Amino acid sequence: MEIEFKHDLEKDNLPQNEIQKRTTRSRERIISAPVVIVINVDMTDMDIYPDEKRNKAEYLMAVQSVANAGMQMLLAAHAEGLGSVWVCSPLFVQKVVQKTLDLPETWEPQAMYFLGYPEVVPSVRERKPIEEIVIFQ
User: Fold this and answer.
1) What is the model's pTM?
2) 34-52, pLDDT tens digit by residue?
3) Residues 69-119: pLDDT tens digits?
């Protein structure tokens, strides 16, 4: 993943010191996490339609289902006192992740979750009033 990330940053014409900083941070986050979970989409058991519109909707439903399952996992981890970080970097290098982890060809990596006990528990942020973020009709 680091090699592909570096190539992408080089294509973005970032300075080498910035590339090094970003790739090092990314690598350190992965290797320092006590637990790394990769979640995947698998379309094997999903419906197949004769038109692109419904097939796209079916794929989006699968992605949403995986994201929802991932969020439930993060909520469960939080309930157990674990800290977590959700990153979507596997989306950029799906084939690399598949090969490295020896995943089935039908599994499309979507995200990684880093789990562990936090060194510092952050204070709860102030929330906006619900009226500012929801439209009631």
Assistant:
1) 0.82
2) 999 999 999 999 999 999 9
3) 999 999 999 999 999 999 999 999 999 999 999 999 999 999 999 999 998
- List the domain boundaries for the chain: 1-32, 34-118
Which helix (H) or strand (E) segment holds residue 85: the answer is strand 83-87
DSSP 68-85: HHHHHHHHHHHHTT-EEE
- CB atoms inside a 10 Å sphere around CB 5: 18
Closest CA to 37 of 3, 107, 87: 87
CATH for 34-118, among 3.40.50.150, 3.20.20.100, 3.40.109.10, 3.30.1300.10? Answer: 3.40.109.10
In contact, 108 and 42? CB cutoff 8 Å: yes
Give the up-direction half-sphere exposure of residue 76: CA atoms within 13 A in the CB hemisphere. Answer: 7
